[in-house]
Write a structure and sequence with these properties.
α4 packs antiparallel against α5, α6 (173-184) runs antiparallel to α7 (189-202) and α6 packs across α9 (214-221). The protein folds into 2 domains: 3-65, Phosphorylase Kinase, domain 1, CATH 3.30.200; 72-237, Aminoglycoside 3'-phosphotransferase, Chain: A, domain 2 (Alpha-Beta Complex), CATH 3.90.1200. The chain has helices at residues 27-42, 72-78, 83-98, 108-118, 124-135, 173-184, 189-202, 207-211, 214-221, 230-237, and strands at 3-4, 8-13, 16-21, 50-56, 59-65, 142-144, 153-154, 161-162, 169-171. It is globular. Strands 1-2-3-5-4 form a 5-stranded antiparallel sheet, covered by helices on one side. A two-stranded antiparallel ribbon has the order 6-9. Strands 7-8 form a two-stranded antiparallel sheet. It is of the alpha+beta class.
Amino acid sequence: MLGSGKQAEVYGQGDHVLKLGRPGASKAAAFREAANLAIVEALGLPVPAPLGVVQLNGRWGLQMTLAPGESFGAVIMRHPELTPNYLGAMVELHARILAQPGTGLVGLRARLSTNIGRAPGLGEAVRKRLLDALLERPQGDRLCHGDVHPWNILGPPDQPMVVDWLDACSGPAEADICRSYVLMKPQAPHLAEAYLAASETRGLACRGDVLSWAPLVAAARLAEGVADDLDELMEMARSL
């Protein structure tokens, strides 16, 4: 096994890998990520090439080419002095992604609406306030990865590859940067703040515009069953 997460396990198979969904993961999810990868591969972005969807012992998985090297996150944890270099490379990669159109992908705003609608613990008044605010936000048309963080980027800083495209969608750049911020903030606040600052310096988005999405993105994140981050996510969601 090369790695594991909440939704899947990744196994090496020679020059390719099998990302095998955990028991209960849907067939649709495997095909959706395969389709997303095919779309972004055609854009020339550094991503694994999808090879096919398979079923193994009742579980659905995606075969794809191997992403070489270790994650940025693993390197940063072991060598914190390299953090600026790796975060800079992460920002540049995110800029390449956001420069592309999100044609053919589900809308980010629709996905946020679905997840806010089923997020536990919000209370109906807060939920309504969030959903009403979401309707006022722009649809956007940028390619959004939906899960950019140091553990989803592999390889050296000058040749990184980004993995885990299940949640790719079309939307505003600020919202995708905010998603990265919200993912990192509870467990690695220093990385989250540094990434936000580096993104602003790079000219991707203003800090205030990114953070204006935080209540919406955090509320949607609550639907993902992230118990360890619950308190901070709830605080962000209720700050609108």
